[in-house]
Design goal:
Layout lengths: L1 E2 L4 E3 L5 E9 L5 E8 L2 H14 L1 H5 L6 H12 L5 H19 L9 H14 L10 H20 L25 H13 L3 H12 L3 H6 L5 E2 L4 E4 L2 E6 L7 E6 L8 E4 L2 H12 L16 H14 L9 H12 L4 H8 L4 H8 L4 H12 L2 E2 L2 E2 L8
Antiparallel strand pairs: 1-2, 2-3, 3-4, 5-6, 6-9, 7-8, 10-11
Helix pairs in contact: 3-4, 3-6, 5-6, 7-8, 8-10, 8-12, 12-14, 13-14
Length: 385
């Protein structure tokens, strides 16, 4: 005789038997154990005690592979990640994490295993050459693994790590910016050139736009009457399992809500855009046909233009850093600058994109410690005619 819901029944020998789940086998099937007693009440008490004692073994089944955890984690986070970030994370998971750790059960993943894996990636992580991956690249891998393990813990598939994952140190490099002479030479070139690479470069140097935003810019986004550029789109690389390379380029919304913004145009930029508008062959500002130009292609053509004209070769993103630095040097309010750059906070603009030059620092120090009175430095006698 059994009591409904208790999983307790009376045996032929007169004893009461209670069955409970007691962990998992390696194939994922549930293991059962039993307790015995002379009375139903005593058996029920023993059963409750055994279930409590063995509850941890039910929480962490060995059958869940880490590859499954990674795929579940990525699927669960798809809703909050932009398409380009999804593609980046999927590539890291499929190319680096799953081949090395995917075959392990999630219960076998600990800090020692993960730290050893990260160390190997630093030394020999590149798939093409066997050389080491950059610390920044490996740090991103570590963050993904750490987040996936926390996800697995929340789902009841494993225990939390007892010691932390050691992420590699990523030195903060000061990005290159153009000095005023380089910027002046480039501006002179851009004003005289009529091709679309020069137009796109002038846009970035006068607005701080990202290269993906420049490539996605349509003529319908240019408001000549109100002297504004409307930033509503960018070019993103997303995952595509039908493509040979597993990714494709699409027109996407900007990376954050703050990135959707309106930018004022300078007189120089308005004049150049009006001339380009009259000769347009595309709905896109920097394209010669109906298809947008990929950011990689545009950056290549930008560098080619610099080499051809004897200018220092830099990547396109340097224009954004240069624009931000010049705005800050001119005394622009930090919040106003963050609005122009499309940042959610002024701290991002100041900490990441503003790089005061030595000459600027020297001038500011001179203004503090060499103040003037009646147009002459303090302490210096006024010349009597």
């Amino acid at each position: 005789m059994s009591r409904r819901g208790d999983n307790i029944h009376k045996r032929k020998d007169g004893r009461w038997e209670g069955r409970y789940k007691n962990g998992y086998r390696n194939d994922g099937s549930v293991k059962y154990s039993s307790v015995y007693a002379r009375t139903y009440k005593e058996c029920k008490l023993k059963l409750e005690q055994s279930r409590t004692e063995n509850s941890q073994s039910m929480l962490y089944p060995k059958a869940v592979r880490f590859s499954d955890v990674m795929n579940y984690w990525l699927e669960a986070n798809m809703i909050r990640l932009k398409g380009s970030t999804q593609a980046k994370y999927r590539s890291l998971i499929e190319r680096h994490i799953i081949p090395s750790l995917g075959g392990l059960f999630v219960s076998e993943i600990n800090s020692i295993v993960v730290n050893s894996f990260l160390k190997e990636k630093i030394k020999n992580g590149r798939i093409s050459s066997g050389k080491g991956l950059s610390p920044s690249y490996v740090k991103t891998i570590a963050i993904i693994i750490e987040s996936a393990i926390k996800f697995a813990c929340a789902e009841g598939w494993c225990q939390p790590l007892k010691t932390p994952i050691n992420k590699p140190f990523v030195p903060k490099n000061t990005p290159r910016i153009m000095n005023k002479e380089e910027e002046s030479r480039l501006l002179e070139l851009l004003v005289n050139e009529q091709h679309l690479v020069a137009i796109g470069t002038l846009i970035a140097l006068n607005t701080g736009m990202r290269i993906g935003e420049v490539c996605a810019l349509r003529w319908s986004d240019i408001d000549f009457n109100n002297r504004l550029i409307h930033i509503r789109h960018t070019i993103s690389r997303v995952y595509d399992d039908t493509s040979k390379n597993k990714t494709k380029l699409i027109i996407d919304t900007p990376k954050t809500l703050s990135s959707q913004r309106d930018l004022p145009m300078t007189e120089t930029l308005i004049s150049a855009l009006r001339t380009a508008y009259e000769k347009r062959n595309s709905i896109f500002v920097v394209s010669e046909n109906e298809k947008f130009v990929s950011p990689r292609t545009f950056d290549y053509n930008f560098r080619k233009m610099l080499v051809k004209n004897g200018l220092a070769v830099v990547n396109f993103h340097v224009l954004r850093h240069t624009f931000a630095t010049r705005c800050a040097e001119s005394g622009m309010d930090a919040k106003a600058l963050s609005c122009l750059l499309g940042h959610s906070t002024a701290n991002i603009s100041l900490n990441v994109y503003v790089h005061p030059t030595f000459d600027t620092i020297k001038q500011q120090l001179d203004s503090i410690y060499n103040p003037t009175f009646n147009g002459q430095p303090c302490g210096q006698k006024k010349q009597i005619p």
